[in-house]
Design goal:
- The protein is α+β, with helices and mostly antiparallel strands and 179 residues long.
- The chain has two domains: 2-93, SH3 type barrels, CATH 2.30.30; 97-176, Alpha-Beta Plaits.
- It has five helices and nine strands, in the order αβββββαβαββαβα.
- The chain has helices spanning 2-11, 79-93, 108-115, 139-147, 159-176, and strands spanning 13-20, 26-39, 42-49, 52-57, 61-70, 97-104, 119-124, 129-136, 154-157.
- A five-stranded antiparallel β-sheet has the order 4-3-2-1-5. A four-stranded antiparallel β-sheet has the order 7-8-6-9.
- A hairpin with a 2-residue loop joins β3 and β4.
- α4 packs across α5 (159-176).
């Protein structure tokens, strides 16, 4: 299906498709395919519809037909810029929880690798540690990511992340403590 969609994007042909949304409601529509994006092994179609730009998960597209009708694409459409905007909107709707940490400056790139765009260095302290803000959907998500760092990272706030780290630590001590 991705190859067919890519061909429709390149040839600028409208697509008639059946789509199932998150609520499992099926709709049939005709779209102008503008581009395809692969994010974490999930393909998305960015397309123009009668209601404006929409993003469709390719794995939720059912029946699909490429038409002979020429698709329209905005003159200054930039797929990477539009995808960045889509991702930002989705992440804002997920109401991320932020935590503030202290970590050695040399480890900030590793932390950024783990949290991606949700890792923001704030300031470098006199002791060489950096105050960093990280974010994830839930306190447990942040704690699970940080638990393996041990005492190398210090969580300053919020208390919910500290509590999750304490809970995880207690579970590990209970299971693995030498008796």
């Amino acid at each position: 299906m991705v190859d067919t969609l890519q061909d429709a994007v390149v040839r600028r042909r409208k697509i008639s498709l059946e789509y199932e949304n998150r609520a499992h409601q099926r709709t049939r529509r005709v779209v102008d395919p503008w581009g395809l994006v692969d994010k974490d092994d999930v393909w998305y179609l960015v397309a123009g519809t009668e209601k404006g730009q929409r993003t469709f998960r390719v794995d939720r597209i059912g029946e699909m037909t490429v038409t002979d009708v020429v698709a329209e694409r905005p003159a200054h459409f930039d797929l990477s810029r539009e995808w960045e905007r889509v991702v930002d909107e989705v992440e804002q709707r997920r109401s991320l929880l932020s935590a503030t940490l202290l970590i050695s400056a040399r480890l900030v790139p590793v932390l950024r690798d783990r949290f991606g765009r949700h890792c923001e260095p704030l300031e470098t302290r006199d002791d060489g540690r950096v105050r960093v803000r990280v974010a994830a959907p839930m306190a447990v998500s942040i704690a699970q990511e940080l638990a393996g760092w041990g005492a190398i990272v210090e969580v300053l706030e919020p208390d919910s992340v500290k509590a999750e780290l304490a809970r995880l630590g207690s579970e590990l001590v209970e299971r693995y403590a030498q008796r």
